[in-house]
């Protein structure tokens, strides 16, 4: 990880030497000397960084890292004081002279700091010669640069530990859940860490038979920081959300007995399943059990724990214990080969590696997490017996003394040490977030870029490189996919519990980040990144954080407006500030002092207006105002020439959303000057036609959202879109339900467009849509299209998701054979005239179908019985006669849907659903 800090310091030095020589004023020689010394250290460090646990090397690496941090601080402080525009000519010269004299004391202080750093760097450079490390030419450098290799998309979404060895316990658990006595039953899955308890139970929990059998489902990861009240609220929240019901605000104010009584009342006559994942203490169960009524409805509780006594104690009088065992040798070997030899057809082990591979599998002792981690590490290395034997020797020493959790952590540290330098900081960033926290993919990418972790490459944006970094971490089995879109892209990710604990230890050791949880903790040393979890307002008072580079707050009570002034004055070197959900109502003028800020999230705060001080944040790359009430962006925003991602909108959240479901913002004239913008959502187009024309200058845009578009602006919008060759997603909403979206003028749409969202009347479906070969998701709302106008969509080769909301006025929808070959999700809503849907062999891969408020629909789609891959059919507010025909034992159309595991009818008015 020191390599990342050093590389960034070198980049800073290069920038200062090349672009800011006029500011150095006598200290440039010192800066150049530092740069030369660091460059000599750099190549040595990259090898030493991976072996820092040997022979005192860790101390040396830590010293290099801290020096790199100090260099960054000093240079940023220098730029903060001296890199200010002063104009040109004599006037500019005069202003520069006055500014130099005014800050002469600061100048000398910084010069002295640079000289002190120069001495330290020289000493460290000399000390490195004391260490001798024998480096084997193992091709690591080639592996490091070869990030971009063929990845099968499906591999990103499979948890490897579930691929082998769980078939028998999975079927056993499913049987215990859906069969047997009607009384409440507790099932405990017991085993040491790394055996795959969570993976097994998640697979069971998500199984079709389990999902369809229970009416209420809740999954709780029991961290050691939770309170019982929080756990009970989380269970209730999941039950309400699953039933599409609004979570009552009064529950947030409840405690203890009130929460227990509320949960018991909610579950009184319902068949529920609750998973308590990673339970550590029986006292927690002794409290929770009173909230789960014994209602004789066939309810079940699933517990996973590493402690056998806890698992047995939860059973009391009725239940089962599943003692999860390590994988038998054959299963362990199969799992190892699948991961270690993924690039070889059939995952076959080469003959020359069989002996060494069997030795490695034997040492892993059937622990799936250890097998996956080691195999993932080896898959990145050259397939040589010598290289694998070296790794085996290290593993032997780590595993010999303790076969439980600690060796797994050490194995995972081997995976960490094997990471190229540019991935280590990215991986450690997960230490900032709470345990089991699903981190949005796009958020992670923006944060990595803001921190300077991404090394841009020729022909690629930093965002593209960051995606490759994340894919590499997933590929190495160090990061898991938490959620993905149906069209394949990763939506959020997390790290396994054991890996998370390892990251926390490594993060502390590397002085990478610190977390404050619930209450104030004594902080010492130079803290670089700080995350605050559910702490009070005074947690940062009387604390020196002058070296802080990133601040995150999880929990609404972490910050108050009154405490901002002094805090942000001391955060002058801050790059990342995430205040999502903080109880602030105004844009603090103090933000204008954060001149190095690159990432600012005010998401879901109460802010409704931005201050002019925003214009001082000239390094800002991401401004996230989603969920705020900001309706207009100030002219000063045009000063933010580094801005790449601008999110400013909020959704209507009531029960009956109006036509303007998304509220955007007004932008100033000149928005086209922000040439680096990649995401712009959502802007109001009705204020001025010039705004729509200016969008054509934003040629780097990958996502664009526009609301309130007028018909006469269609031609200008099409002209602008034609210039956006990088566009991947576009959303357009007309100014009203009677205002036509006139988008026929787009002759050459962006070839890589993947997502298209149109809200508003269409006289006809634009012809250019048929050319979108890469389109995966499409939503049409209020289109009011006529008969046969949707046929063009059937030939789109990669369309995965299609949503039609008031989009079609015809009586019949006919999808011909061979159409929609890759469609997985079909959503039909409020098609008021629709009588029949005929599939005729179309949509062979459809998995989910939603039919909502299509009141004239006479029957389920003709040919639905041919959809052998259809797993879910959801009906919302459909006529009673329609629903009646699908009920078991009595419905005339029931035989047509018997092959579908989940068939449900929802009543939005009463917020209930019925299993059909």
From TrEMBL:
InterPro entries: Apaf_helical, Disease_R_plants, LRR_dom_sf, LRR_R13L4/SHOC2-like, NB-ARC, P-loop_NTPase, RX-like_CC, Rx_N. Residues 5-87 form the Disease resistance N-terminal domain. Gene3D superfamilies: 1.20.5.4130, Helical domain of apoptotic protease-activating factors, P-loop containing nucleotide triphosphate hydrolases, Ribonuclease Inhibitor, Winged helix-like DNA-binding domain superfamily/Winged helix DNA-binding domain. Residues 561-875 form the Disease resistance R13L4/SHOC-2-like LRR domain. PANTHER family: DISEASE RESISTANCE PROTEIN RP, DISEASE RESISTANCE PROTEIN RPM1. Belongs to the disease resistance NB-LRR family. This is Disease resistance protein RPM1-like.
């Amino acid at each position: 990880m020191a390599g990342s800090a050093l590389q960034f310091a070198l980049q800073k030095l290069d920038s200062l030497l090349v672009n800011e020589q006029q500011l150095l004023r006598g200290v440039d020689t010192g800066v150049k000397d530092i740069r030369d010394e660091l460059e000599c250290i750099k190549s040595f460090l990259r090898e030493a960084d991976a072996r820092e646990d040997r022979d005192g090397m860790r101390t040396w690496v830590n010293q290099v890292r801290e020096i790199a941090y100090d260099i960054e601080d000093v240079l940023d402080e220098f730029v903060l004081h001296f890199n200010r525009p002063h104009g040109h000519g004599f006037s500019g010269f005069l202003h520069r002279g006055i500014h130099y004299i005014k800050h002469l004391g600061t100048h000398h202080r910084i010069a002295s700091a640079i000289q002190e750093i120069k001495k330290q760097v020289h000493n460290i450079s000399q000390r490195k010669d004391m260490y001798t490390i024998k480096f084997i030419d193992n091709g690591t450098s080639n592996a490091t640069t070869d990030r971009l290799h063929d990845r099968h998309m499906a591999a990103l979404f499979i948890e490897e530990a579930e691929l082998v060895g769980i078939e028998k316990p999975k079927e056993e658990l499913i049987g215990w859940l859906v069969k047997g006595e009607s009384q409440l039953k507790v099932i405990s899955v017991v085993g040491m860490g790394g055996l795959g308890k969570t993976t097994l139970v998640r697979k069971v929990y998500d199984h079709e038979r389990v999902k369809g059998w229970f009416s209420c489902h809740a999954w709780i990861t029991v961290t050691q920081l939770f309170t019982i009240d929080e756990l009970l609220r989380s269970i209730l929240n999941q039950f309400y959300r699953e039933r599409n019901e609004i979570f009552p605000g009064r529950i947030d104010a409840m405690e203890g007995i009130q929460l227990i009584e509320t949960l018991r009342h909610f579950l009184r006559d319902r068949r529920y399943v609750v998973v308590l994942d990673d339970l550590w203490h029986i006292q927690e169960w002794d409290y929770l059990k009173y909230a789960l009524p014994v209602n004789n409805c066939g309810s079940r509780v699933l517990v996973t724990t590493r402690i056998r006594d806890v698992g047995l104690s939860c059973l009391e009088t009725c239940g089962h214990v599943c003692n999860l065992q390590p994988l038998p040798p054959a299963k362990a070997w199969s799992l190892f080969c699948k991961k270690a030899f993924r690039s070889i057809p059939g995952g076959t082990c080469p003959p020359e590696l069989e002996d060494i591979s069997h030795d490695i599998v034997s040492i892993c002792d059937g622990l799936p997490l250890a097998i996956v981690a080691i195999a993932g590490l080896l898959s990145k290395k050259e397939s040589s017996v010598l290289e694998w034997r070296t790794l085996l020797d290290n593993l032997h020493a780590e595993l010999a003394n303790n076969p439980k959790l600690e060796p797994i952590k050490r194995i995972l540290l081997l995976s960490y040490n094997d990471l190229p330098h540019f991935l280590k900081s990215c991986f450690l960033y997960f230490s900032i977030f709470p345990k089991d926290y699903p981190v949005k993919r796009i958020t992670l990418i923006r944060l990595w870029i803001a921190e300077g972790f991404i090394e841009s490459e020729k022909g690629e944006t930093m965002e593209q490189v960051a995606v490759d970094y994340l894919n590499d971490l997933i590929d190495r089995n160090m990061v898991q996919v938490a959620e993905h879109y149906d069209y394949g892209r990763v939506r959020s990710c997390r790290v396994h519990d054991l890996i998370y604990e390892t990251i926390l230890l490594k993060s502390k050791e590397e002085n990478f980040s610190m977390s404050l949880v619930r209450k104030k903790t004594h902080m010492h040393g130079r803290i670089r990144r700080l995350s605050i979890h559910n702490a009070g307002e005074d947690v940062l008072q009387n604390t020196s954080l002058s070296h802080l580079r990133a601040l995150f707050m999880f929990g609404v009570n972490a910050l108050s407006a009154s405490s901002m002034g002094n805090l942000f004055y001391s955060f002058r070197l801050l790059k990342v500030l995430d205040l999502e959900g903080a109880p602030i109502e105004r844009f603090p003028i103090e933000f204008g002092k954060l001149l190095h800020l690159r990432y600012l999230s005010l998401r879901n705060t109460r802010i409704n207006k931005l201050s002019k001080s925003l214009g001082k944040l000239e390094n800002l790359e991401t401004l996230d105002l989603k969920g705020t009430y900001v309706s207009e962006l100030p002219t000063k925003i045009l000063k933010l020439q580094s801005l790449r991602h601008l999110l400013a909108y909020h959704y209507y959240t009531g029960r009956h959303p109006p036509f303007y479901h998304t509220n955007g913002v007004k932008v100033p004239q000149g928005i086209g000057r922000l040439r680096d913008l990649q995401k712009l959502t959502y802007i109001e187009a009705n204020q001025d036609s010039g705004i729509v024309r200016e969008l054509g200058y934003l040629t780097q845009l990958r996502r664009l959202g526009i609301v309130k578009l007028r018909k006469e602006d269609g031609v200008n919008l099409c002209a602008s879109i034609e210039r956006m060759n990088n566009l991947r997603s576009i959303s357009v909403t007309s100014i009203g339900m009677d205002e036509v979206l006139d988008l026929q003028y787009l002759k050459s749409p962006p070839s890589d467009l993947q997502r298209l969202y149109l809200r508003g009347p269409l006289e006809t479906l634009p012809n250019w849509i048929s050319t979108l070969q890469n389109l995966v998701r499409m939503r049409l709302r209020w289109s009011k299209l006529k008969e046969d106008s949707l046929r063009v969509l059937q030939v789109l080769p990669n369309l995965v998701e299609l949503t039609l909301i008031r989009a079609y006025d015809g009586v019949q929808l006919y999808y011909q054979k061979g159409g929609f070959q890759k469609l997985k999700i079909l959503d039909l809503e409020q098609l008021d005239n629709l009588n029949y849907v005929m599939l005729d062999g179309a949509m062979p891969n459809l998995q989910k179908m939603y039919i909502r408020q299509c009141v004239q629909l006479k029957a389920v789609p003709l040919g639905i019985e041919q959809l052998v891959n259809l797993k879910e059919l959801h009906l919302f507010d459909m006529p009673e006669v329609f629903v009646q025909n699908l009920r078991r034992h009595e419905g005339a159309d029931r035989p047509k849907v018997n092959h579908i595991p989940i068939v449900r009818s929802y009543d939005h008015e009463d917020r209930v659903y019925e299993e059909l």
